[in-house]
Amino acid sequence: MFDDKKTPLLRVRNLKMHFPIYRGLMKKQVGAVKAVDGISFDIFEGETLGLVGESGCGKSTAGRCVLRLYEVTDGSIELDGQNIAELSGKELRAKRPEMQMIFQDPQASLNPRMTVGSIISEPLVEHRKMTKVERSARVDELMDAVGLARRYADRYPHEFSGGQRQRIGIARALALNPKFIVCDEPIAALDVSIQAQVVNLLEDLQEKYGLTYLFISHDLSMVRHLASRVAVMYLGKLVELGPSETLYTAAQHPYTQALLSAVPHPDPAKAGNINRIILEGDVPSPSNPPQGCNFCTRCPRAIDICHQDEPEWRQIGEDHFAACHLIE
Hints:
Blueprint lengths: L9 E14 L4 E16 L4 E5 L6 H8 L7 E6 L2 E2 L5 H7 L3 E4 L13 H12 L4 H14 L16 H13 L5 E5 L7 H18 L2 E5 L3 H7 L2 E6 L2 E7 H6 L4 H8 L6 H4 L42 E4 L2 E3 L6
Parallel strand pairs: 3-8, 3-9, 6-7, 7-8
Antiparallel strand pairs: 1-2, 1-4, 4-5, 9-10, 10-12, 11-12
């Protein structure tokens, strides 16, 4: 089902994250929110895997699970051959420097009472035995790498613009020389004029340091520019995964086709030729997903089997996977 000839840096299998629902005076569990419900994918060293889907489909939860910021319900997460889903305590702490995260909201993810220098050096204090002079030199190096002037090290986050604050977050993520970084919608909270600058910075850093990214976003045009492969998520499950160009030019799953049809066209004269696919109804609750295919209640092409049996995740082309009864 997956390419076993190459060894991936990250190998995720049957990952589940179910949040229990409690009710009553006795706090009895009456159900669970299936935020992530059995997803599997690989990320190879030096590549960027884009993870896209509507708000609430489980993208950010999947990213946090991969970094073990949540105690996963089930599944394995192998980073560099080690299953971090089974690690705890000192073992997990020792693995932390290899995997970092860039958060969506740079204002909320930076401590307003700490200076920029303190924020960037905090991982070094926690995980590295370095002198104050060595830490200061490393902070200067990281600020240079993300395009911030060294003289700003004694300033506070509120004194910076949104784009500059995101650069601070990126510098902090790079402090421990990680192999793998989860970018959780890092441009969503930024002005459109700044988004391209941050994306170009991420690309430059990837080339310079050999980084591997899981890039989570709902901006499909930006993901096409940045990612070498793209995974599409709906209601806690992956529905399609493939090389970027294959997915954008020959998407097979009805949900992927609907998402792509909603992307604005840069040329208004040609925009009228696009066949817009309008999905009817609301996204079902992840605490009570539909029987069969998760997408069957909104799919314009659904047939009887879609409402009865869950589709199998299978290969449909070269490095191209999908879960749909309608794909031959």
